[in-house]
Amino acid sequence: MRIGMAFGDVRGRAPLTEITRQIQEAAAAGAASAWVTHGMGWDALTTLAVAGPAAPGIELGTAVVPFPQRHPLVLAKQALTVQAAVGNRLTLGIGAGIARMVSTMYGLPTDRPARRMREYLEVLRPLLRGETVDHHGETYTAVGAIDLPGAEAPSVLLAALGPAMLKVAGELADGTITWMTGPQTLTNHVVPTITRASGSRTPRIVAGLGVCLTSAEDAVRARFAEQFALAGQVPEYRAMLDRESADGPADVLIVGDEDSIAKQLARIGDTGATDLMLAPIGTAEEQDRTTAFLSTVVR
After folding, report:
1. Where are the beta strands (DSSP E) in 64-192?
2. Which of 85, 24, 91, 83 is nearest to 57 (CA)?
3. Helix (H, G, I), strand (E, B) or coil at 79
4. Is the pTM of this model over 0.70?
């Protein structure tokens, strides 16, 4: 199982220079991948275009860019521009976004998310390959092509939790990225569902979880529960927490001392996930301590 690190909003507010430094350190430590989350702060793709050239060798991914706000022609052009900037190391993670935010902030429809995603991918993937599209569909019209010299089509992963979206991910994407999805749910739901949908292909399954190396486990869990309380209430994540029999996000946090964290990481490895995307959380001191430990794990 490949071990990567998460950066950006999920770890709290930070200047762009600090995120760049963190990604550089992860690359130097031997992390397999660096994933920039996309929330209310920095734009994930733009952040990678800035930070990526300063961190050679490491895979760079978005986790994840919401697609409703970006027409496929727009996203294809942005993604391929980033590909050129980072030497074709981009993995494009996209998702439907939190429905409540998409509808209230942007006034965009959120019904039939799997149907919309399926049509979106049917347009986006040819565009990423430099092909011309002439699409007049149920939810999208897209006519044109993106041709950027030296930019290769990135791998595309889909944030997929429910059965319908996992089916789309297996059929039309290269895999999935999850967040706050525990080992029981990965084993019994995510991995078998997307594997069936992928047919003869082996899907990439990136399991994203928060992590904190600490001797004050109860205090860290309590703080995490407060900070991510809203995430535990929205239907998209609540459904996965219910499958895990978890009261809230703190119950799927990887937390404890070195031995405890190592055992929890091994348990995720046993689920069939191909990648871990670990987000050190907590204070700056806690994140630094956790990152230092994880650098020994990835080596």
Report:
1. 65-66, 90-95, 133-136, 141-144, 155-159, 175-179
2. 24
3. helix
4. yes
Whether the predicted pLDDT of 172 surpasses 80: yes
What values do phi and psi take at 51, rounded to 5? -85, -30
Rounded Cα distance, 253 and 282, in Å: 12
Q: How confident is the model at residue 99 (pLDDT cuts 50, 70, 90)?
A: confident
Distances (CA, A) of 28 to 32, 57, 193: 10, 9, 35
Please check the confidence at residue 298 and state whether its pLDDT lies above 90.
Answer: no
Q: What angle do CA 63, 69, 70 make, to 5 degrees?
A: 80
Q: Three-state SS for 163?
A: helix
Residue 58 DSSP SS3: coil
pLDDT of residue 230: 85
User: In this structure, is the dihedral angle defined by the CA atoms of residues 50, 51, 53 and 58, taken in order, positive or negative?
Assistant: negative
Find the largest Cα–Cα distance for the chain: 58
- Three-state SS string across 223-260, please? HHHHHCCCCCCCHHHHHHHHHCCCCCHHHHCEEECHHH
Within 10 Å of residue 196's Cβ, how many Cβ atoms? 12
Residues 6+ apart with CB under 8 A from 166: 160, 176, 190, 193, 194, 197
Cβ burial 211-226 (10 Å sphere, 16+ → b, else e): bbbbeeeeebbebbbe
Give dist(CA 6, CA 252) in Å, integer. 16
For the chain, what percent of residues have pLDDT higher than 90? 92
Residue 112 φ/ψ region, left for φ over 0, alpha for ψ in the -120 to 50 degree band, beta for the rest:
left
What would the two tokens of residue 123 be? Answer: 């347009």
